[in-house]
Amino acid sequence: MSQGPYQSPMAPMGGPYPTPAQSGPNALAIIAGVLIIIVALMNLFGSFAYMVGGAVASGLAEGADGLGNQMVEQMRNDGKDTTELQAALAETPSKLRIGAGMAKTFGVFLLALFGMGIAAGVVLFMGKAATFALLVGVLQVIADGLSAFFWSHIGVTNLIGIGAGVLVIVAAISIKGRSPATLPAPAM
Does residue 130 lie in a domain region? Predict the structure, then answer.
């Protein structure tokens, strides 16, 4: 009567059910999936913050250009030396524009990572597409490393993101490492 290692009393005609090790994702993959979805939502809000911050910085750079030119003109009218001010004004807006562009680009990257994080959570729940989940985990660790680099410190959200990325990497490797004999049969 016993056809497999696990028999359910509710199985029709006494048929075997797959063991928990053979069916679907493991607990690590589910935990990693939940955590990466939470971090994906944090990435969504972070992307908005970076893009808005970059847009504001771009506007400030344009304003600094106009204000600086007005200051130089006023100093010339007053007969004062403007060489130092012109040198300072030449650097500041260009540095601000570079920083603004980097912030906007990073915001777009986080927005893309938001979508990939949600998708990675789903594939981890299903126990499939381990390579995709692995890629998302690596990108999440890189994103939080870059964020920590931009702000020159590691915050709580960076630690959560890095932890989620590492967990996704480990879960993806565990899914990838399962032999085909232990994978669940495709549903028809």
Answer: yes
Confirm whether 171 is domain-assigned. Answer: yes
pLDDT tens digits along 30-57:
999 999 999 999 999 999 999 999 888 8
Per-residue pLDDT of 153-166, as tens digits, reads 788 988 999 999 99
Q: Are 53 and 101 in contact (CB under 8 A)?
A: no
Give all strands (DSSP E) within the chain, no chain letters: none
What's the CATH number where 151 sits? 1.20.1260
CA 42, distance to chain mean position in Å, is 8
Q: CA end-to-end span of the chain, whole Å? A: 26
- Strand-pairing partners, residue 7, are 16
Q: Check the CA dihedral 61-63-64-68 and report its sign.
A: positive
Whether the CB-CB separation of 33 and 125 falls below 8 Å is answered with yes
Task: Determine the residue type at 81.
Answer: D
Nearest-angstrom CA–CA distance, 119 and 34: 11
What value does the mean pLDDT take over residues 122-137?
91
